[in-house]
Amino acid sequence: MLIEDLQVILKVAEFRSITGAAESLDMRTATASAAVKRVEASLGVELFLRSTRRLRLSAAGERYLPQCEQALKMLCTAKQSMKDELDIVDGELRIAISSDLGRNMALPWLDEFMEKHPKVSIRVSISDSNIDFYRDSVDVALRYGSPTDASVYGFKICDVPGILCAAPDYLKKHGTPSHPAQLNDYNGLFYQMYGVVYDQWEFTKGDEKVKVKMTSNRISNDADLVRRWCVAGHGFATKSSLDMSADLLAGRLVNVLPEYQPRSTELWLVCSNKQSITPAVRLLRDTLRIKCSDIFQQMFKQGILKQPPN
Fold it and tell me: In the chain, where does the domain assigned CATH 1.10.10.10 lie?
């Protein structure tokens, strides 16, 4: 009996569907169905009761599946412990990354990481939506904001200051504000998530707090598109300084009102469970920390940031 077949069995039980399990495991439905038949034939019992509309566990399946799951976890833990002791860096890394950070920064970092560790393969999910580790078959996620789910494990990569920016051509044409309250006279570039448009911008300078209700002629649920609009000179954007770092360092964007701080955040590498923290994940964590630190040091040296974040 193959371990891979048992993994299929668990996915079929989770999705109550051979087709759903096959899609989750990125295999053909016929391949998943064959795996189920092999396990049932080996055990001499039917694990699932099938009808034209649904699939459910049989009495034998209900007894067998929990023990099967526990056995696979023990095998996975033993295998991972061996790799940890030998510092073996291999396997598939299934990672989710936000659109802007992923396309423009993290993917080149991953390419470099794989060149150093050729036994590692990656499967990348690019999305600004919150990731469901189990539904989306993801092991780790690189995302902004500290995790609120106590069941996940995470590593803080760095603090990330927010930044108000615009293209030099836009400022030349429309002028540069001297206070956030004047932003009402300018076009904002809005990010939308789950139907919520982020059109109220907040700024802090010491004890002073300013909220500005902006207007816009461009809204998108893709953070990378908001960045592109900003570089193209269509208005102001408040974004992660990390997302905008390449454009700021190249002079395609300007940090406007640097004494007023938009909302800051944190960058985290979040793992679905403790078993997901492999040698490859720990090395990736260290790589990300170095890469982000280098970028912030460059921005500090060019005067874009007053000081590099932690």
Answer: 3-79
Cβ-contact 248, 304 below 8 angstroms: yes
Q: How far is CA 176 from CA 61, 184, 250, in A?
A: 68, 12, 20
Q: In what order do the strands lie in the sheet with 200-205?
A: 208-213, 200-205, 261-262
Q: Are strands 215-220 and 187-193 parallel, antiparallel or unpaired?
A: parallel
Distance (Å, whole) CA 53 – CA 208? 61
The whole-model pTM stands at 0.70
Q: What is the pLDDT of residues 205-230, one digit of tens each?
A: 988 999 999 999 999 988 899 999 99
Tokens of 113: 């990481």
- Tell me which fold the domain 162-263 belongs to: D-Maltodextrin-Binding Protein; domain 2 (3.40.190)
**CB distance 255 to 303 below 8 Å:** no
Q: How many CB atoms lie within 10 A of CB 161?
A: 21
Where does the chain hold its CATH 3.40.190.10 domain(s)? 87-156+266-301, 162-263
Is residue 237 within 8 A of residue 112, CB to CB? The reply is no
